[in-house]
Structures are given as structure tokens and as C-alpha cells.
Amino acid sequence: LALARSDRAMTHRLLGVRGYLQYVRGEDRRSAQDRVAKVRAVLPLIDRREEKRVAIAVLGTIPADGAMRLLEEMVNDAAVTEEACSALLSLASDSTGQITKDQRREAVGLVLEESKNDTTRKMARDLLEKIR
């Protein structure tokens, strides 16, 4: 994270962001809230689509309300809307996590509103039926 925050060369910052996100992804012994907080800490340092996609991939593996909220915010970023929608569907399909049925329904509703991909929208409709 220190490398990602440094004012060194852009390449170093990008490597720092990517390395930090991979570190967070591999920290499955930590609490979900702690992992979400770590991703939240690095998000302001991310400008490029590629790193946003990595952050989305990490958030999509954290079954927690905080991860879902961050993904919902990222849906508004046109560069990664579809990736965020897919990650939301992944979290919403997991009924064993810390995410309530209402939160799961809300996330799927957002996917239905924002996704332009027909396959993603069909998956969202099917998932919504299962959640009810």
C-alpha cells in the first residue's frame, strides 16, 4: 500500500496497487470487514480500468455487506459497470454469507437496472426468483 501511495513512477504505483489487491485476496483468514476496509483504502488510488477490474474481482470474493456496497458504487462507473454487475450477482447468489435476503434482492435489482448485457440480466432475473 505504501508503494501504491508513493509519488514514484506510475509503474511502481500500479504494481503496488495490484500487489496489494492480490495480498487482500489471499487473506482469507482475516474478517470480511477487514478485507473490505483494505480494498476501500486502495480504491482512491485506482484510476485505470484494469486495476478497477482487479478490485472488483477481489470484492466479488468477500461475502459481506461492505463488499456489496462498494460494488454497488462501482456499478456507476461506466468503465466497469458490467464487471461490477457480475460480481454483485456472484455475491447475491451466495446465501451463506453475511448478506441478508433484502440486500441480495436490492443488489440484483440494481443489476437489472444497470446492466446492458442480456445474459447478465437473464441471470439476475433467474436469481431474483430463487431469492424470493
Summed up:
The chain has 132 residues and is mostly helical. The chain is built from eight helices and no strands.
**Uncertain spans, ≥5 residues at pLDDT below 50?**
none
Which structural category do the helix and sheet elements fall into? mainly alpha
What is the H/E string? Answer: HHHHHHHH
β-strand percent reads under 5%
Q: Helicity range of the residues?
A: over 70%
Structural commentary:
- By secondary structure, the protein is an all-alpha fold.
- The chain is built from eight helices and no strands.
- The longest helix is centred in the first third of the chain and has 17 residues.
- It is globular, with a radius of gyration of 15 Å.
Strand and helix map with partners:
Elements: H1 2-5, H2 10-26, H3 32-42, H4 49-59, H5 65-74, H6 81-92, H7 101-114, H8 118-131
Helix pairs in contact: 2-3, 2-4, 3-5, 5-6, 6-7, 6-8, 7-8
Key features?
132 residues, mainly alpha, 8 helices, globular
